[in-house]
Amino acid sequence: MTRDEAFFQFLLRMGDNTLILGHRVSEWCGHAPVLEEDIALANTALDLIGQTQMWLGLAGEVQGEGKSADDLAFLRDAWDFRNVLLVEMPNGDFGRTLMRQFLFDAWHSIMLTRLRDSKDARVAAIAEKAGKEVTYHLERSGDTVIGLGDGTDESHARMQEALDYLWPYVGEMFEGDAVDAEMAEAGIAPDPSGLRADYDALVGRVLAKATLTIPDSRFAHKGGRNGRMHTEHLGHLLTQMQWLQRAYPGATW
Amino acid sequence: MYAQMIKSEATKDDPEKLVAFQARIDADEKIEPKDWMPEGYRKTLIRQIGQHAHSEIVGQLPEGNWITRAPTLERKAILLAKVQDEAGHGLYLYCAAETLGVSRDELTEMLLDGRMKYSSIFNYPTLNWADIGAVGWLVDGAAIMNQVPLQRTSFGPYSRAMIRICKEESFHQRQGYDAIRKMAEGTPEQKKMAQDALNRFWYPSLMMFGPSDKDSVHSEQSMAWKIKINTNDELRQKFVDQTVPQAEYLGLTIPDPDLKWNEESGHYDFSEPDWSEFFDVIKGNGPCNVDRLAARNKAWDDGKWVRDGLLAHAQKRKAAKVAAE
């Protein structure tokens, strides 16, 4: 694996995470529990899609085959996606959606903070811009997790259930491989395992305030970020997302 | 029915106060929430602003229908931004209505149990991607036609909300026209989608201005109060005059064989929409009425535990703060 091949994989991981999560969040449009949440969810999805344009745009550049961010988003099949499994999990109820968002935002904000020091100026610039948006995402998802965890008995039970369901998808975000080793050596991106301590501290603080119990297991479902085995959910998501581009190849929109 | 109710309530108001109120309106003064106002004025405004707010909220559904299928990342981002704006408009409008003494939750309940309406246009489906362009171009275009004069409406909070909303709506209309233009200039299939969208949205867009002046029950009093500035027919004509050249530029055909320029009047002659269809839609028999309301009811019911949970948490924090002091 050359450095550029590893760099391309790294950029796909960043861009596919934001693309797939942005898609999931956008599914809420018009269906949120309260108007302010409709606005906040649309805003989060919008930020994530904007970040996707930057990451996948750079990925196309690094790949050097003349592909645009749209080509990468709409014309790859499931096995070529490199997002973590967490972000492709279905929305479930509002509690599960917000828990998924919080578990991802916590990782995302730590990752972007590290990427601001990337030796690749383009990566550092994207991280700088995205980092500001994600600081707000984390503040909001964290506050909501606390509010619902420490709300009524019902909201507490639902949030605990959401945490139990999603926790096995957390570990994948910290699994390093040859791509990560190459990126770390080049000074482009940190090794993901190095983010875990900060993550545990942050997540532990918020979940304690939310009166929620972190499951006593480090078992991790894996296979998204290396494309070996996605969940069954991703294929369905892609049939929707990619439909127009696939049905009318070559058209411009 | 409603107009009758308003009339009977209006007559209960002190005649001297009514005369003074009308004088302020005639002098183009803005009426503010704490000022005296006739009960009919208040009720009419609650109905109109509430209905407008509900339209913004229900309007998220036909557009949201295509967010997950938007064909490019840029189109997806634009559509998300637009739908987010619509929800924001709903928020300003509910706030404006609240200044008249009705809460957002009360208005929401009235939408959900069918006591209040929303714009009939959102009871039509969005079936192909060009519909998203058509909604921006025609539906937002018609909405702007209605709303620009309302920036001068007599009730201060409503007028100020309209000024803000109109700025964003004109961006919405431009993006819609741009999206449908791309398709009208695209492949034969894309052009077919664009024409199909225009065929389905043309008459429902004309209906957005409401029934013909002779059949409009709310017009006369509302115009005297400057809650309504132009008549339905004036605005509809203006919309047709503006839109026909835009359709010609796109190379699309407006689905009206009788549409033609009238040299004498300086306007286009056009066919009236099928008003029996309009009244059917208003009564709940449009293609999507049941689904739209069901979706809003489901969102509200499913979200109850969230609203309750956040409220309970806020109360706990408040209690803890008081205990600490």
Automatic annotation (TrEMBL), chain A:
Record-linked InterPro entries: Aromatic_CoA_ox/epox, Ferritin-like, Ferritin-like_SF, PaaA_PaaC, PaaC
GO cellular component, one term: cytosol
One GO term of the biological process aspect: phenylacetate catabolic process
Classification via PANTHER family: 1,2-PHENYLACETYL-COA EPOXIDASE, SUBUNIT C, PHENYLACETIC ACID DEGRADATION PROTEIN PAA
NCBIfam families: PA_CoA_Oxy3 (TIGR02158)
Record protein name field: Ring-1,2-phenylacetyl-CoA epoxidase subunit PaaC
Organism: Cribrihabitans marinus
TrEMBL record, chain B:
Annotated InterPro entries: Aromatic_CoA_ox/epox, Ferritin-like, Ferritin-like_SF, PaaA, PaaA_PaaC
GO-annotated cellular components: cytosol
Alphabetized Pfam families for the sequence: PaaA_PaaC
Molecular function in Gene Ontology: phenylacetyl-CoA 1,2-epoxidase activity
Lineage top rank: taxon: Bacteria
TM region(s), chain numbering: none
One example of a Gene Ontology biological process annotation: phenylacetate catabolic process
NCBIfam families in alphabetical order: PA_CoA_Oxy1
PANTHER family the record matches: 1,2-PHENYLACETYL-COA EPOXIDASE, SUBUNIT A (PTHR30458:SF2), PHENYLACETIC ACID DEGRADATION PROTEIN PAA (PTHR30458)
Protein name (record): Ring-1,2-phenylacetyl-CoA epoxidase subunit PaaA
Protein species of origin: Cribrihabitans marinus
